[in-house]
């Protein structure tokens, strides 16, 4: 049986559709549908969430079509918003398209990725009973602003007519239809025109290091990847397309700062100190908006925590947060657009790739040795700090342990390409479990602190404020209970992380004597 | 995922026209739909211009799995496939009788197909046999087209008696009036007497030359003449069936 979907070939310029149909007419009848023409806009999230799942989504005005990239099989066709600005899954009317998009896109918005002009005709090929046995689509695809016009011919199978399909394929080949093409060629070209390439961005840190690199070379490459991530997310933050741009920007800044403080004596000290403080500053500018984002993203979940009578008070609170966010966002945009911020990034780029006048003591160390040392040191620290963790550890100490875990995680991620994949995967999974519980605990702690501060700033004299205060009180109670419940899991989570098998694995991976290569 | 059987003990009541049109409307939603032509006469297959492969027969149907999958064919409409009937289906009861759990064989054979298809529609032959029992067991919803005549109503009683006999109950059965001629007094009187009863659908399929001509243009009327009264009647029926049976 043929796989579902279509064969796609380039249609030679000299070959007319009529010539192909007349070659087929000895064996097959045909009915041609009227010609179609449309300019479609392909949309995806910045990090290609649909493409990763094998989907392509395009819109033509308010008509949206979601289909499988490989097979071109249409999954859903439905009306939706116009893609004049970033739009979210929840902007679509309730229906099958929204149901598919929502879990895939989550909180990410759709952005236009490529604009392509499609023009073509569908022809049904018929057997003696005038039954459709295959479909031919002849289509030209031209990306906006591109001069290349792709002429494609596509053959779609009808189930149960494999013999006819082979026959048609043979006739096509005999008539010069031989050069296979990607049905997504227009889409790919359109992405290129708009400066994108499918899967060219992921929020995960990924870099293949060369074990032959020196520590200085490897760190320059790591910082460069992080710098790219910073720069790529800035436009989305400035335009405020969705909250993940700021999140990813902050993560890239934090990773850079962690690198600068974890990996010492590789960059010249003065340079490291200078950029540690510059990135610290940059990180702080992004904080207030992100804190508010975290709250606003949790809006529905928070409302669910409260009895219905208290919800209006919380709605008032969220309305106020949304206003505050607007103000903070403006501040953030100003800060990111400032000459100073731009200067930091370009100076950082220059410094990374310029030879050091006075190389640092560990600059020439093989990267593998550097990696082993740093990860082993971070691991030891987490083990030491974590061994004191118990159900009544103060919030502040839990927070410190969480930071230590984060540092260890970043260190492993920086250098993971130097180690066997499966083992790294295992190590990260163990660490992630511990981080998840500490992270949730800390989030709950930070959220309560913010509520406490808000309450302290706000008087209770008006009815409006009383409603608000009651709602915040109830929310604090709910958050506190959840936080306390998490404490019971501390010991267990840490014991899992520090079991002899994990320790042995860490030692094996990161402590092992360097074998001469 | 659901299985809908279009069934009546009597022949010539519009079963095939109903199956073909509802299957087409289902595929438009879009839901991947499989139409199973169970009638050895193969009228539904004829409407879609599909011939069964030479090697396909009753035995293969009852074996199921790849024996069925290999013989499913695409119709002219994307999202609508069909398993054409074979003439050997006329002896299907004998073959069923030899199977283990002979009343549940069809159910067993259809279950794996529900992984690929959102809906399966069965166009059933007119009789009351072991195959019928299989169909009643396998289907989530049994649609019975009825011409508003005394004999038709009599056959309905027989159907209900049979369902009770095989302990399946009549909840699954939904009746609608088919080939209704407005100008016939008996039609309207009989329909009135049945209207509002449990299991009787509101939608009515009129007697229509457009439906009769399906044999000539060999397409669902909803595809060939989408603006016609007949097409609108099938659309109404399909919406009502979906609501009533929650499919």
Question: What is this structure's SSE topology?
Answer:
The complex is a heterodimer of chains A (517) and B (247).
Chain A lengths: L5 E5 L6 H8 L4 E4 L3 E9 L4 H4 L2 E6 L2 E6 L5 E6 L16 H10 L5 E16 L5 E12 L6 E8 L4 H13 L10 H9 L21 H25 L3 H20 L6 H29 L1 H7 L5 H27 L1 H15 L13 H20 L8 H21 L5 H37 L5 H25 L2 H8 L2 H12 L6
Antiparallel strand pairs in A: 1-9, 2-7, 3-4, 3-7, 4-5, 5-6, 7-8, 8-9
Chain B lengths: L1 E5 L8 H13 L5 E5 L5 H5 L10 H6 L2 H4 L3 E2 L5 E4 L8 H6 L7 H6 L8 E5 L6 H9 L2 E6 L3 H16 L7 E8 L4 H10 L5 E7 L2 H4 L1 H4 L3 H4 L4 H17 L2
Helix pairs in contact in B: 1-13
Specify the overall morphology of chain B: globular
Distance between the termini of chain B: 7 Å
| Integer-rounded radius of gyration of chain A | 29 Å
Largest sheet of chain A: 9 strands, antiparallel
CATH architecture of chain B: 3-Layer(aba) Sandwich
Structural class of chain A: alpha+beta
Work out the strand percent of chain B: 15-25%
Report the end-to-end length of chain A measured between terminal Cα atoms: 50 Å
Principal-axis shape of chain A: globular
Q: What do we call the CATH topology of the largest domain in chain A?
A: Hypothetical Protein Pfu-838710-001
Domain module tally of chain B:
1
Fill in the CATH topology of chain B: Rossmann fold
| Tally of DSSP helical segments of chain B | 13
Mean pLDDT of chain A: 91
Q: What's the level 1 CATH class of chain B? A: Alpha Beta
Top-tier CATH class of the largest domain in chain A: Mainly Beta
Number of strands of chain A: 9
